[in-house]
Amino acid sequence: MIDNFSKTYEFDTIVRRIEIDVTLEYHTKDGYSWVKRSCKALIDTGAYISGIKQSVVEEMGLKPEEETSITTSTDSNVSSNIFFVNVFLSDTYCIEDLRVADLPNEKSPNDFIIGMDILSHSDFAISNANGKTVFTIRLPPRKHIRFKNG
What we know:
- With 150 residues, this protein is mostly beta strands.
- It has a domain at 18-121: Beta Barrel (Cathepsin D, subunit A, domain 1), CATH 2.40.70.10.
- The protein is built from two helices and ten strands, in the order E-E-E-E-H-E-E-E-E-H-E-E.
- It has helices at residues 54-60, 116-119; strands at 5-10, 19-27, 34-43, 51-53, 66-71, 77-88, 94-103, 112-114, 123-127, 134-139.
- The chain has a six-stranded mixed barrel with strand order 2-3-8-4-7-6.
């Protein structure tokens, strides 16, 4: 695996949801096999922890490691299982053993949510010039991004 990651995602229009492709990986408890699944991940700066949809948990056969309480977008506290997965942002960049919560809302169109637990360890920028959204992310962070007038 590489130590650095940077990627720019360009959209044809201004988007209200930034979704990127990731691969989730889970090492089964028997120690002999890996389960992988590709999915669309929503970039969510309002989520303090990354999350995984319950149907993906079941499909991958994830086993909960602990339980916690999370606050949802409607400000309700719900019980949530915690899992540890590897998250591949590319073929060569992996965030290993990321602590993720199962998502209480199965109606979400996204299988995975990238929260501030990942984003706070990155530099990222969103721009919407010329009617197109561009999202750029880099891990680990290297320097502050500052925009200048003009």
